[in-house]
Amino acid sequence: MSTPVYRAGHVAVIGRPNVGKSTLTNALVGAKVSIVSNRPQTTRHRLLGIASFDAGQLVLVDTPGLHRDQGKATASAMHRSMNRAARGALEGVDAALLVVVAGQWDEADEFAYQALHGARLPVVLVVNQVDRQKDKTALLPYLAKVTEGREFAAVHPVSALKRKGLEALVKDVLALCPEQPALYGEDEITDRSQRFLAGEMLREQLMRQLGKELPYATTVEIERFEADGALYRIGAVIWVERDGQKAIVIGKGGERLRDIGAKARQHMERLFGCKVFLETWVRVRQGWSDDEAALRAFGYRD
Ligand SMILES: Nc1nc2c(ncn2[C@@H]2O[C@H](COP(=O)(O)OP(=O)(O)OP(=O)(O)O)[C@@H](O)[C@H]2O)c(=O)[nH]1
């Protein structure tokens, strides 16, 4: 009897906001949550989660270079920069999951597809949220339309929320990964990595929601990270350099910071699988980026 093949690889999870990337990642990672972020990661990839199966391991990564700019680039400028950006961002990635919402295909979906295609990476189309489609007969024509003239290594209608269709998806994605041993241990979950991840999730929301307005010298420090039964109490400081920047992050009536915190908390709860009580403060520390001690405190130096 031949030994079963074990495959492992890095898989980019790409898609516009709210399509269900986090839900999908979490569903794939499953109960055996083994999120590791204290290992050095290439700056190009941000680790989302590690999904381990009998037949292999998928290291799910986000590739920040692939997100469409919030600004209004012209189509041609966008196309010019796209392939270059995609190639860089996707270095070391074995396959990509392009997540879309069943029944929808808009400009942002097309942008992501073109970027992935330009990088010559196998793209698996994940048609998510099929459970929300009332008219089940609409799925086939939709699939025919989106696959026409586009190349996908596989197409999988799924419901990340209801965990439907994931087994077949995993099988096809693993098939695109090289035969090699697991890249990470299955039980590397530690408070430290969760603490680190909490900071990353807040940082991600700052980037997403502030875009170009995000002051360059912004950093996140997790001051407090306590597990209180099934509740995590997390206190985070967002450091900026000037009062004006503080006002930008906080927004009118504190609305912006509230939105940023709410979304970050939602992601933390999903990834950690428990309730999170998140408190955030914006503090000003002048010239912190020049200050060696401050950089050390924020984890920028050993
Ligand atoms: N009905 C249904 N809802 C889903 C499914 N997948 C995700 N959702 C919901 O869609 C919303 C967005 O899901 P997320 O996983 O946060 O989406 P995301 O792509 O990670 O969003 P960003 O972080 O903003 O990019 C949440 O309310 C999810 O519960 C699904 O398969 N079915």
UniProtKB/TrEMBL annotation:
Give TM regions: none
One GO cellular component this record assigns the protein to is: plasma membrane
The superkingdom of the source organism is Bacteria
What is this entry's stated membrane topology?
A: Peripheral membrane protein
Name any one Pfam family assigned in the record. MMR_HSR1
Q: Which residues form the Era-type G domain?
A: 7-179
Location in or out of the cell: Cytoplasm; Cell membrane
The answer on whether this UniProt entry bears the keyword Cytoplasm reads yes
Q: What is its main location?
A: cytoplasm
> Which UniProt keywords are present, listed alphabetically?
Cell inner membrane, Cell membrane, Cytoplasm, GTP-binding, Membrane, Nucleotide-binding, Ribosome biogenesis, RNA-binding, rRNA-binding
The record's section on HAMAP family has:
GTPase_Era
Summarize subunit and interaction data from the UniProt record for this chain: Monomer.
The family classification in the record reads:
Belongs to the TRAFAC class TrmE-Era-EngA-EngB-Septin-like GTPase superfamily. Era GTPase family.
Official protein name in the record: GTPase Era
Organism whose genome encodes this protein = Marilutibacter penaei
